[in-house]
Design goal:
The chain is largely without helices or strands. It has a single domain, classed as Alpha-Beta Complex (paralog of FGE (formylglycine-generating enzyme)). The protein has 6 helices and 9 strands; from the N terminus they run αββββαααβαββββα.
């Protein structure tokens, strides 16, 4: 697979940059432009999508700059998991990640199709036209499709720890906006009106619903959109029944989950998805909720993704590798 073309500009990067409620996770039911690598911009220029909240200047200072359509997530320890949710979220404990950058939105249909046109990604056809508009998140992708796209962009699928760090913000929020429960004013979820906030899929029963365009709701403190709702997001890790069961593989610094995310894992058959979606209720949209699915599955309604970039990956992009 060919990589997308290199970026040219330089930057100084200053940071080293449902399941059931008893924990027996069943996962979602249904099955079947982040453009080419962006140029880095100097620290003096604003990010392509402004960071939100009172901590935004501190975040920018921590990274010394930004990538268009990406936000910097400062490194350091954070509290991951919850002792109040399903068993698979337990225990709540401190882990640490290095600084990294995260796409501000889920990868869109137009961005994915650009990768296909460039012959860097294989085609993934969406069954319903309601899910095929340019600025909707690209859904119907397998874990492998998501991984391959990110690699083609010179990036990677975020680890589960990276994803949760980015979703929770600087103060460990239950939802990207705070601790208030998810509503349709805050996220694209299922509510009393039905799936996708009562917006029906064309030519179908009203309860079916669809995704919305990315960034249709406000971002979190890091400037990330749709970390709750809209599309489930694949992450790199193999699924474990709990962090405790995962053991050292889910602990410490830069945890990568069972088998360190290797191509195969004798201890697991499913990969993790995060963030909830338009199809599921508010309790799936917390920053700690964990679900999972077979990595080769392509559920046409639900699964999308976004990419992350380590500082080394960002440097390689600028060096033309």
């Amino acid at each position: 697979m060919r990589r997308a073309g290199p970026a040219i500009f330089a930057v100084l990067l200053g940071c080293a940059a449902r399941g059931s409620r008893d924990g027996a996770d069943t996962g979602p039911r249904d099955a079947r432009s982040n453009d080419a690598p962006p140029a880095l911009v100097p620290p003096a220029q604003p990010p392509a999508r402004p960071l939100a909240g009172p901590t935004a200047p501190a975040v920018e200072d921590a990274c010394g700059g930004s990538l268009p359509k990406m936000a910097c997530i400062p490194g350091g320890p954070f509290l991951r998991g919850s002792d109040d949710g399903p068993k698979n979220e337990r225990p709540r404990a401190t882990v640490e990640v290095d600084a990294f950058l995260m796409d501000t939105t889920e990868v869109t249909v137009e961005a994915f199709e650009a990768c296909v046109t460039a012959r860097n990604c294989k085609p993934v056809h969406t069954i319903y036209s309601d899910f095929s508009r340019p600025r909707q998140p690209k859904v119907g992708v397998s874990w492998y499709d998501a991984r391959d796209y990110c690699v083609a962009m010179g990036k990677h699928l975020p680890t589960e720890a990276e994803w949760e760090k980015a979703a929770r913000g600087v103060d460990g929020r239950r939802y990207p906006w705070g601790d208030a429960p998810a509503t349709c004013e805050l996220a694209i979820i299922m509510d009393a009106r039905g799936r996708s906030c009562g917006v029906a899929k064309e030519g179908a029963k009203p309860e079916t619903g669809r995704t919305f365009e990315v960034a249709s709701r406000a971002p979190n403190e890091y400037g990330l959109y749709d970390m709750s709702g809209n599309a489930w997001e694949w992450v790199a890790d193999w699924y474990s029944a709990s962090y405790e069961a995962c053991g050292d593989s889910c602990s410490g610094k830069n945890p990568k989950g069972l088998c360190a995310g290797a191509a195969s894992c004798p201890r697991s058959t499913t990969r993790i998805v995060r963030g909830g979606s338009w199809y599921w209720e508010a309790d799936h949209a917390t920053t700690t909720f964990r679900s999972h699915h077979l990595p080769g599955n392509e559920p046409y309604h639900h699964y999308g993704f976004r990419c992350a970039a380590s500082l080394d990956e960002a440097a390689k992009l600028t060096a033309g590798r």
